[in-house]
Amino acid sequence: MRASYGDELVRRIIILGGGIAGLSAAWQLARSNSGEIVLIERESLLCTHASGRNAAIFRPLEAEASLAMLARRSLALFGELSPERPLVEPRGLLLLARAPETLAPIAQTAGAQGTPHEIETPERVTMRLSGLNVSGWHGLYAASGGVIDIHALSEILGRASRALGVGIRCGGRARGVKTNDARVVGIEMADGELVAADDVVVAAGAWSGEVGESAGFALPLTPVRRHLALLECQRALPASAPAVWSLDDEVYFRREGQRVLTSPCDETLWRAGAPQAEVQCLEPLARKLGGIDAALGRAEVVRYWACLRTYAPDRRPVIGSDPRVEGLHWLAGLGGFGMTSGVAAGELLAQSLSGRPPPSELAVQRLLTRP
Questions:
Q1: Which position among 203, 235, 265, 351 has the lowest Cβ density within 10 Å, counted as fewest Cβ atoms?
Q2: Are residues 172 and 127 in the same domain?
Q3: 290 and 158 share one domain
Q4: How far apart are CA 96 and CA 251, in angstroms?
Q5: Looking at residue 16, which CATH number applies to its domain?
Q6: Which of 98, 71, 279 is nearest to 264 (CA)?
Q7: What pLDDT does residue 162 have?
Q8: Is 113 domain-assigned?
Q9: Are residues 302 and 261 in the same domain?
Q10: Mutual orientation of helices 338-353 and 150-163 as an angle, nearest 10°?
Q11: What pLDDT sits at residue 230?
């Protein structure tokens, strides 16, 4: 149902989810004058869950071309959002692998997309990580990698969206999407209120699968729990240290003040919600970090927490219109690369509502034809 302003009917678009993805979609839809944009966030604050509980690493290096494209575009959009204050602290990103063949597909994608990068020998890696006792690692380095100021990003996106007329409603718990004759008609709230809409964008992170099921149009989206930890090391990493990501035995870490922020990249199937952190899930950290630097593997855990990451079966984002029901759109499955790719993913979502479909490898249709 379109909102009425005098004699003019205006398309109403409701976005479910106030994380980076939902905020980015709201900003882009408002920029393109798509209609009346309403964002509904279940929590009292925006970016409460995955968007606020991550390592904030900007990772421009990916073997998957679609992910690398989203990262590159997000970096450009960061500049539009905050032209005077960079939203990424350019510490650099260093990917590690024992065999150079592991890094080759990523370097090939970076070259094809024009992302500046350096292929590094073990000697060069040792120099790059001068504060650590490393040996035998090959590296792929991108100076454009670094640490995202996720709090500034969320504040700027919220402010920019409100300035363009987006209505942001926090603390609004949606029960589900309402449809009629294969057409979206609105959102039913937990208190029974029906909020009419022409279009609904599902950007609800770990809750996205449940939202789809409420309308009878489920997608295979799986939330998993991941742990992060803050470590106290005997010797602080140097200020010049890049964010580091080992691909052999998945683990990443970066400097956080005088401490180290890290994750063992664990994944446990989990329900949507605020996940409970369990210290035993950090046990692989000593082995994984110790395989890079022995002293790092002995660092003391001073704080740890858990968050959710949501994936489609092929681990690519799900962006665009659902062909099974008119007016239902998806911006989900951003997994562990939501902060890097979320702003560009929001742009693709907005473009899809104006008739420009996303790349086929990101579109909803690919999940409907899986065996």
A1: 235
A2: no
A3: no
A4: 10
A5: 3.50.50.60
A6: 279
A7: 96
A8: yes
A9: yes
A10: 20
A11: 97
Residue 156: what are its φ and ψ, rounded to 5°? Answer: -65, -45
Question: Which parts of the chain sit beneath pLDDT 70?
Answer: 1-8, 370-371
Q: Is the Cβ–Cβ distance between 366 and 320 less than 8 Å? A: no
Residue 269's closest CA among 211, 221, 216, 229? Answer: 221
Domain membership flag for residue 126: yes
Domain membership of residue 61 (yes or no) is no
Written in H, E and C, the secondary structure of 28-59 is HHHHCCCCEEEEEECCCCCCCCHHHCCCCEEC
Domain C-terminal end among 281, 311, 341: 311
Q: With H, G, I as helix, E, B as strand and everything else as coil, classify residue 370.
A: coil
Quick one: 133 and 163 in the same domain?
no
Identify the domain containing residue 129 by its residue range. Answer: 89-144+222-311
pLDDT recorded at residue 1: 45
Tally of CA atoms within 13 A in the half-sphere of 20 that contains its CB: 30
DSSP 183: B
In the chain, the amino acid numbered 293 is D
Q: Is the residue at 321 inside a domain?
A: yes
pLDDT recorded at residue 370: 56
Looking at residue 205, what DSSP letter applies? G
Same domain, 192 and 111: no
Number of domain units in the chain: 2
Which DSSP symbol is given to 248?
A: T
Closest C-alpha among 120, 126, 111 to residue 139 = 120
CATH for 265? 3.30.9.10
CA dihedral in degrees (340, 345, 346, 347; nearest 10)? Answer: 110
What pLDDT does 3 receive? 45
- Please give the pLDDT value at position 8: 53
CA-closest candidate to residue 319, choices 339, 335, 334: 334
Q: Does residue 195 share a domain with residue 320? A: yes
Are residues 302 and 172 part of one domain? no
Give residue 6's pLDDT: 38
pLDDT in tens, 3-43: 433 345 789 999 999 999 999 999 999 999 999 999 999 99
Q: pTM for the whole thing?
A: 0.94
Same domain, 19 and 138: no
Torsion of CA 212, 214, 215, 221, to 10 degrees: 10
Bridge partners of residue 254, in order along the sequence? 261
Token pair for 270: 């989990």
Instruction: Check residue 358 and give its pLDDT.
Output: 97
For residue 336, give the DSSP letter.
G
